[in-house]
Structures are given as structure tokens and as C-alpha cells.
Amino acid sequence: MGGRETIKSTEHFSFTVSNLDKTLHFFCELLGLTATPIAEVSNEQIQKVVKMPGASLRISIVQTPDNKKIELIEYAKPKGKKIDLKTSNPGVAHIAFAVDDIERMYEDLVKKGVEFNSPPVWVVSNEGKGKWGVCYLKGPDNITLEFVQVVE
Predict the structure, then answer these.
(1) In the listed set 59, 80, 101, which residue is the last one of a domain according to the structure?
(2) CA 139, CA 137: separation in Å to the nearest integer?
(3) Of the four, 9, 83, 94, 127, which is 20 to 30 A from 142 by CA?
(4) Residue 145: how many CB atoms within 10 A of its CB?
(5) Structural domain contains residue 105
(6) What is the distance between the alpha carbons of residues 32 and 100, in angstroms, rounded to a whole number?
(7) Dihedral, 38, 40, 44, 46 alpha carbons, nearest 10
(8) 121-140 pLDDT, tens per residue?
(9) E-strand spans in 11-120?
(10) Are 53 and 47 in contact (CB under 8 A)?
(11) Could you tell me if 123 and 132 are in contact, meaning their C-beta atoms sit under 8 angstroms apart?
(12) Is residue 131 part of a domain?
């Protein structure tokens, strides 16, 4: 050992959701990502990890085109409670996805009923050497997601 232990990479991101099937439909059918089959987990090991005796979880991993993983967990037991996911609240997280055509993504998803905070907003860098389009959208359970398109 001897040296300082370090983090090697990001393994996955995770969101707890109230309805895994509905959330998988959103990520796979609307956003075009892929997912693993749903695993139902209720054992001593997972109960120890989540520090909840008797916990029962449904889990699926969504895969992005660049091989990042988003773990989606539905607690069958104990059921969770809704919390305020306003982006200014401490501890609230979001994931930003790089996209090729933010305007088209926005238009297509609005037609499918997806809620956005605003249409894409174009921001010019302080150095004036590039710009990027940015918009926030709401996923299931009001999870905030972000689309970003960088233009050099």
C-alpha cells in the first residue's frame, strides 16, 4: 500500500425513482438510451449497503453512448417520500447530456410532452471563442436533466 489511495474513475450515477418502468420508458423510448433488464434485489448485503433492514429494490442500469452508467433504483420496500428537487436545494443533483442538435431535441421532446424550464439558451464564452446551447428538462419524479450543445 504505502501511497495515498485515489479515486480511479466514475463507476455510475444513481437516481431513486418511484416507478422504474415509467422511468425506463423515459430514458429508453424518449431519450434513446439502452438499459439492462430489471433486477429485483432483497438480501442481507444490499440491506446493509443501504442501511435499511428489510429493504427490497428494483434496479436497472441505463447506458449512455459513451458508456456512462445511470443506475435507477425503485424501493419496493420501504417506499420513499417525495422531496423538493428544486435545483437550488442542497444535495439536489442533475446529469448533463451532450447533444448534437439541441434545438431539434427540444422540439421533438416538447411534442412528446416532456417539460422543459425554457427553450435552449445560447451562451457565448467569456473569451468569445465558442458558444453552447443549454436547457434543463424534467424527467420522471421531477429529476432535472440538462442538454448541452457545444459549438466551437
Answers:
(1) 80
(2) 7
(3) 9
(4) 20
(5) yes
(6) 14
(7) 30
(8) 999 877 777 899 999 999 99
(9) 13-17, 34-35, 39-41, 56-63, 69-77, 94-98, 115-116
(10) yes
(11) yes
(12) yes
Q: Please give the torsion angle defined by the CA atoms of residues 30, 94, 39 and 17, in that order, rounded to the nearest 10 degrees.
A: -90
Which amino acid is present at 27?
A: F
Residue-wise pLDDT for 77-129, tens only, equals 999 899 899 999 999 999 999 999 999 999 999 999 999 999 999 998 777 77
**Residue-number span of the structural domain to which 113 is assigned:** 88-152
**How far does the chain reach from its first CA to its final CA, in angstroms?**
44
Pairing of strands 94-98, 56-63: unpaired
User: Where a domain ends, among 24, 46, 80?
Assistant: 80
Cell output for 132: 453552447
* CA dihedral sign of residues 91, 125, 119, 105: negative
Q: Is 144 helix (H, G, I), strand (E, B) or coil?
A: strand
